[in-house]
Amino acid sequence: MASRRTTSLLLFLCLFSALLSTVTAQTFTACDPLKEDNCPINPALSTTYSLNLTKELNTVLWNTTNGALTYTDEGAEFTINRKLDSPTIQSKFYIFWGRLEVFMKAAPGKGVVSSIVLQSEDRDEIDWEWVGSETDFVQSNYFGKGNDSSFDRGGKHEMGNAMNDFHNYTLHWTKEKLEWWLDGKLLRTLTYDDAEGGKWYPQTPMNVRLGVWPGGDPDGRKGTIEWAGGEIDYDASPYTMVVKSLKVEDFSTAEAYKYGDKSGDWESIELIGANSTFIEEINKPPPKSLSQKWAELPNGAKIAVYASSAGVGLIALLALIFVCIKQRRVGRKEYSLEESKFITDQNNTMTMQSKWNSNNGGYQELRRI
Ligand SMILES: *[C@@H]1O[C@H](CO)[C@@H](O)[C@H](O)[C@H]1NC(C)=O
Ligand SMILES: *[C@@H]1O[C@H](CO)[C@@H](O)[C@H](O)[C@H]1NC(C)=O
Ligand SMILES: *[C@@H]1O[C@H](CO)[C@@H](O)[C@H](O)[C@H]1NC(C)=O
Ligand SMILES: *[C@@H]1O[C@H](CO)[C@@H](O)[C@H](O)[C@H]1NC(C)=O
Ligand SMILES: *[C@@H]1O[C@H](CO)[C@@H](O)[C@H](O)[C@H]1NC(C)=O
User: Fold this and answer.
1) Same domain for 110 and 135?
2) Does the beta carbon of 149 sit less than 6 angstroms from any atom of ligand 3?
3) pTM of the entire structure?
4) Domain range holding 223?
5) SS3 letters for the chain?
6) What residues form the membrane-spanning segments (predicted)?
7) Residues whose beta carbon lies within 6 Å of some atom of ligand 5
8) Are 277 and 320 in the same domain?
9) Cβ(38) to ligand 3 under 6 A?
10) Tens digits of per-residue pLDDT, 229-269?
């Protein structure tokens, strides 16, 4: 009996580690600071940043690395609609020790994996993960320097329904210890020494990644599919994870973090500059819509715009009349010439309108793309 239990535990751990290597494999970075000198520096957040996800993400701070999000009154929806959908966002900022608080509902469904990840360029990683069919569990995990060869890092924690209700998932990460908190309760602590004397402890600047992915895709690895609760049923989609809000705190202050050597040790990380370029962006008022801009225009300006469009309209009308009269007088040949002149006038009007749009609102829209 006891040995059967041991066998199934070992089996579980094997499957679990098989999946973990896939997760890690998915997240290879472009320049590995453990292998290369002069990888790009990591721009620092350098402050505390709270974010309400009922509104569109600021693209100066975030990159949507896969798929697209939908915004509702509840928050941002990350949805799997069809095969291999895996909407994912990634922060452009990094924190070097810090805190990440996320209010979210995980996605239901077997084969569906929701995740909150902190990850560095040399693949130190801190995870929260949910398997859609295990509604009452959340998993915790970590990696150091991309090493995924041991079986004992993952944790599985019983909780209230993770898919129906919003919960507060908070990571608190310092150089001494890493804590996973659920709704104000400490679930797990990993000390620096716990990770083989710090060797595999996550200790380099991290960015924030949120996403949902089909761990149970039928073409995936068997171990991964089993870990994800079985094959995903795409016909029963959509499967949606909802993130309501975020709060990210960077415990260091700098403009950027830089790997000083190839050790991946926290002591090797250099703090460059004093002021984060993100702070100004965070404190900016949200961009105004075109209608807000219009409403705020002084009346005189509005009248001028109306008058000029009316004026343009009148000129266009006169041109048309002129063209018609002239058309009667001259032959068909010349008519086509005048017609093209009319079209040119029309184009001028349109150019004016789009110029107005782009000077107001439109410019902001472009910047946010
Ligand atoms: C987020 O924004 C929505 C819509 O503007 C608002 O109703 C809600 O109260 C905000 N939530 C927080 C936590 O600020
Ligand atoms: C944003 O994500 C896209 C898609 O993965 C990638 O090609 C691009 O390099 C990323 N940009 C930044 C600034 O991370
Ligand atoms: C990864 O860590 C394990 C111990 O947890 C160790 O035995 C193994 O050698 C490490 N792998 C690498 C590539 O360093
Ligand atoms: C979320 O949990 C963390 C950790 O317990 C706590 O510090 C924080 O205040 C909580 N957030 C809210 C909004 O309750
Ligand atoms: C950083 O910001 C502070 C406060 O706004 C300012 O006094 C200081 O000059 C800035 N430093 C640099 C290097 O820009």
Assistant:
1) yes
2) yes
3) 0.75
4) 13-283
5) CHHHHHHHHHHHHHHHHHHHHHHHHHCCCCCCCCCCCCCCCEEECCCEEEEECCCCCCCCCEEEEECCCEECCCCEEEEECCCCCCCEEEECCEECCEEEEEEEECCCCCCCEEEEEEEECCCCEEEEEEECCCCCEEEEEEEECCECCCCCCCEEEECCCCCCCCEEEEEEECCCEEEEEECCEEEEEEECCCCCCCCCCCCCCEEEEEEEECCCCCCCCHHHHHHCCCCCCHHHCCEEEEEEEEEEEECCCCCEEEECCCCCCHHHEEEECCCCHHHHHHHCCCCCCHHHHHHHCCHHHHHHHHHHHHHHHHHHHHHHHHHHHHHHHCCHHHHHHHHHHHHHHHHHHHHHHHHHHHHHHHHHHHHHC
6) 303-325
7) 274-275
8) no
9) no
10) 999 999 999 999 999 999 999 999 999 999 999 999 999 99
